[in-house]
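Anyone opening a protein record will find just a pair of labelled lines. With that in mind, the following record should read easily:
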Amino acid sequence: MGRTNALYNERFSLIMMSFVENLFSLKDKVAAVTGGGGYLCGEMARGLAQAGCNIAVMDIRFEKAAKVAKEIIDLGGQAIGIEMNAADKESFRLGLAQTIDAFGGADILINGAGINAPTPFFDIKVDEFQAVIESQITSTLLGCQVFGEYMLIQGKGSIINVSSASAGPPLSKAFIYSVAKAGIKNLTQNLGREWGAQGVRVNAIRPGFFPTEWNQKNFITPEREAAILGHTPMKRFGEVSELVGGVIYLASDAASFVTGSELTVDGGFSCMTI
């Protein structure tokens, strides 16, 4: 009886593992990641690769894209680095063409390119405002247009836009960025509605505070860190690897009935009031 139970438990464990693997499987899918040379999106690219995707790492800084692609290849995955200006539609078209040429298609797009600026409201110049908006909303719009059109023709695809805790309510010291991220959230909802019946899902992932070299230098003072952590129920910053599970979920068939949504990964920051 003991041996029979052991064999049954082993078989059931294998069935469960197979079920989970199939549910979240991204084997042989092709994912393009804009801003893929950066801290957050680079980790998303590596995570998608480890989940089975072939990866097109896209960044305006080719050396950064190539570095992440090499890291993926060194892990045993398939990846290419692509130099791409996410605020330029023709550059997006060339990036899509290179992705298809390398891997035979494009199933997933992570729209993660963009810059920030901590400038106080009355000091904001129009060119700075436009630069942040262009890098955030315009790049997301163009990615959805170029890759979305291809996916609609294929009748399938998953687009994941990168929102932020600042998408609403807005954060201090991030005026333009907050405006941009609110726009990305609305764009995501609009496209979820528009393409829902056509096989293409559009969602957003909403990171909380994941300190990067830039925001530690320009955004997070000791006083601000105390305020952030005081407003975060888990009392810590996020680890960049903690974004990967949400990205894999939204990209996979486990989220087949999820579109127009925003998945929050913020340690509870957005649920706090007083």
Q: What stands out?
A: The chain has a mean pLDDT of 93. The domain at 29-264 is CATH 3.40.50.720 (Rossmann fold). The longest strand covers residues 200-207. The chain has one domain: 29-264.
